[in-house]
Each structure stands twice: as structure tokens, then as C-alpha cells.
Write a structure and sequence with these properties.
Strand order of the largest sheet: 5-4-3-6-7
Number of strands: 12
CATH topology of the largest domain: Nucleotidyltransferase, domain 5
CATH superfamily of the largest domain: ATPase, nucleotide binding domain
Largest sheet: 5 strands, mixed
Structural class: alpha/beta
CATH class of the largest domain: Alpha Beta
Bound molecules: zinc ion
């Protein structure tokens, strides 16, 4: 380090120190950065010059300067340069979020899409949406370092069918590989594809942390077309051996029940997902179900039955994982009385230590949350790596 300081040399370590200082402090003078990093003035000066020419940081415009007098040549992380891109290919919507090098979300958006279109079609639609929106907002994608895509369904790693595995899972695995390939070819960066509800769990956790809450142990449950979720313990999103930690819809509620596509039997998803509740209620669709939820005893009983089964599964999850926060979202969860009943059943069934301090909340209805969580996962994967920068700059 002493040699670096004296020589004013720009290295991966000096770049990392300067970026971290700017991420923590916000707009800073070179003197601020020198004080924060302990690097020499020539080193800070050269590193800042290189980052400015690279576009990773930018001079603060006079109009943005809130201090008194002339701005003393402040610089900050560029909000015009995307570092990580998160994409969610949901059922019925596509969304994206881009972060800067500090992990801050600088742009996010979602749009409705055809719920029955294929994953690859939704990926094409999402890419076009990302390109148009970032161009409109003058956010550059050229220096992007990675992309994380969230889609419904657990990640089945093998593209070949297996006797114990439903063909739909093998097909999903092949579609995800195509999606990763499509995006990688268009954007030229590594792409990973995982489950969207896992990323939403991460985003729900970060949302509370940003609001100043200390949340290290959170369960996110989504009751929708399928039933899934994510588990955050010790502040980390849990993946599991097959990236399937959080698949609460595939906990059995009837060991003699019908076989499920997952290879199990009597899964919660078979009795409490949206299609199951619609069928039990004799409804035609979600809107019909919602309309009849409080007036038709058959519909009310179908919703209550699904909530009771879900509450029983959640009680088990609470007993085993012991979270401090339980977040419930999805179309079925938005039906009248559903979350209240899940909570009542879980509290009545689970051990007292699992529920005494438990906070139960409805999930944000924001469609960009899964994409924001995917971007957060992408940023976390990069942390510790030497940021950015043309090696030949
Ligand atoms: Zn199942």
C-alpha cells in the first residue's frame, strides 16, 4: 500500500476504496475521499480521473449542489450507468430494475403482459422494454456487469427428463437456458436465472432494512397461480441444494392426496393455489371469485379452506425456521379475510416461541419488487469482485 500511495498508482484496490467511499458518503470532494480512504492525494486524484473518464462516476452539477458557495468539484457515483440488471418474467407482467455500482436502484419499471405467452417471448418483451426505458432515461447498459432473471417455478438443473420429475420441470429448465442465452447474446454479460419469489423475499427484506428496521429472519409466501416463497435467515437469502428453499406450496397437507407435478403428493398448491380455489368455489376467474368472496357461502368456504390449509403449513414453517417477519402476497392472499385466517390458524397451531414476537404483514403489491430483488442478488454476487473498469483505460 505504501508503494501505491507514493506512486499514485491506480489499482483494483484503490478503485474499490474510492467507490466504497462514494457509495457511503454520496457526493464528495477529492479531499473527502482522501480522508475517508487513507489513500494519498495523487492516488485519489488519478483514480477519480480514471473513473470519470470511464463514466463510473460523474461531476456534480451546480444545480445539484445543496451546500453553500461554489461546489468544490464534487463527484458521485453515476446514476446513468447500469451496473446490475434484474428482470422478472412474471405470470402477467414483466419488470426490470437497474442498480449503480453501489447497489442503489436507479431505474425500475413494470408492464403487464400476456399471461399465457412463453417464457422466451416474455424475455424478448422484457429486453425490448429494458432497452426502450433505459434509453429514455439516459441510463447506459454498455458497462453492465451481470443480469439476474427471476421466473416462476423451482429451478430444475437438468434439461433431461427424469422418471421422478414431471416433464414440465425439464421443459422449464430448457426454457430458462434459452432465456439466459438470449439475454447474454444481446447484452454480452453473464446471466443467471432463478426463482422470482426468492428474489421478492430478498426485496421485501431490503425494503424493511432501508426503512431502518433490523430484519434478518423473514419468510415471504406468495399464494397465486402457484404457491412459493423465499426464506431469509441470518440476513441471507437461502437457496437450498436445488435452489428450491421456500417452495412452501409443495409441503404435503395430505399424505394420501393426489400426486403433484413436483413428484410429491397432496401438496398445499393442489388445494390453495388460485386455480384450486376457483375450482372449489365454482367461480370462473379471480374477479368472479373476489366478487362472490363475501356473498356466496361456497366461495367463502373455498377461500377459508385454502387459508386454513396454508395456515397449517405456515405453522410448521414458523416452528422450523423461526422468522421475525412473515410477509404474505399473491392474488389469493388479496382475497378478503385470507391473510387474517392464515395468521389465526398459524398462531393457534405453531409453538408459542414461533409466534410471540412474529409480525405478519401483507406484501407490497408493487410489480417491480421481484426485479429489484433480482438486481440485489446480482449486486450481492458481484460484491468483493473488483468493480468495473476497462483494464486498458
Ligand atoms: Zn408439489
Amino acid at each position: 500500500m505504501a508503494n501505491d500511495r507514493e506512486a499514485g498508482e491506480v489499482t483494483g484496490a484503490t478503485v474499490g476504496s474510492v467507490m466504497r467511499a462514494l457509495s457511503t458518503r454520496g457526493p464528495s470532494t477529492r479531499a473527502d475521499i482522501t480522508a475517508d480512504t487513507g489513500l494519498s492525494r495523487p492516488t485519489v486524484s488519478r483514480t477519480v480521473a480514471m473513473l470519470l473518464s470511464d463514466g463510473a462516476i460523474e461531476e456534480v452539477k451546480d444545480a445539484d449542489y445543496a451546500g453553500r458557495g461554489r461546489p468544490a468539484h464534487l463527484v458521485r457515483l453515476s446514476s446513468r450507468r447500469a451496473d446490475t440488471l434484474g428482470i422478472e418474467l412474471g405470470r402477467g407482467h414483466v419488470a426490470f430494475a437497474v442498480t449503480d455500482v453501489s447497489g442503489r436502484v436507479v431505474l425500475s419499471a413494470s408492464r403487464d403482459t400476456n399471461a399465457v405467452s412463453s417464457l422466451i417471448d416474455r424475455a424478448r418483451e422484457a429486453l425490448a422494454f429494458v432497452v426502450a426505458q433505459t434509453a429514455h432515461a439516459h441510463v447506459e447498459l454498455g458497462k453492465l456487469r451481470n443480469v439476474v432473471v427471476g421466473t416462476p417455478g423451482p429451478r430444475y438443473r437438468h434439461p433431461d427428463a427424469h422418471p421422478a420429475i414431471d416433464v414440465s420441470l425439464a421443459r422449464l429448465a430448457r426454457e430458462r437456458a434459452l432465456v439466459a442465452d438470449l439475454i447474454m447474446r444481446q447484452l454480452g454479460v453473464p446471466v443467471s436465472v432463478g426463482n422470482n419469489t426468492r428474489y421478492t423475499a430478498l426485496a421485501e427484506t431490503n425494503r424493511r432494512r432501508t426503512a431502518g428496521l433490523s430484519v434478518d429472519d423473514l419468510i415471504y409466501l406468495r399464494v397465486d397461480e402457484g404457491i412459493g416463497g423465499g426464506i431469509v435467515t441470518g440476513g441471507e437469502l437461502q437457496a437450498g441444494a436445488w435452489d428450491a428453499a421456500g417452495e412452501m406450496g409443495h409441503v404435503s397437507v395430505d399424505v394420501n392426496g393426489a400426486p403433484c407435478f413436483c413428484g410429491g403428493r397432496g401438496c398445499l398448491e393442489l388445494v390453495a393455489s388460485l386455480p384450486a380455489v376457483i375450482r372449489a368455489a365454482g367461480a370462473s376467474d379471480l374477479d368472479d371469485l373476489r366478487e362472490r368472496a363475501t356473498t356466496d357461502p361456497v366461495a367463502a368456504a373455498a377461500i377459508a379452506g385454502a387459508a386454513t390449509a396454508t395456515g397449517g403449513v405456515i405453522a410448521g414453517v414458523l416452528a422450523v425456521v423461526n422468522p421475525s417477519v412473515l410477509v404474505i402476497g399473491g392474488s389469493v392472499a388479496s382475497l378478503p379475510g385470507f391473510i387474517d385466517r392464515v395468521e389465526a390458524v398459524a398462531r393457534a397451531t405453531a409453538p408459542s416461541w414461533a409466534t410471540l414476537d412474529l409480525v405478519v404483514e401483507a406484501a407490497a403489491t408493487d410489480h417491480v419488487l421481484g426485479a429489484i430483488g433480482a438486481a440485489a442478488a446480482g449486486h450481492a454476487a458481484l460484491e468483493g469482485a473488483i468493480p468495473l473498469v476497462n483494464r486498458d483505460a
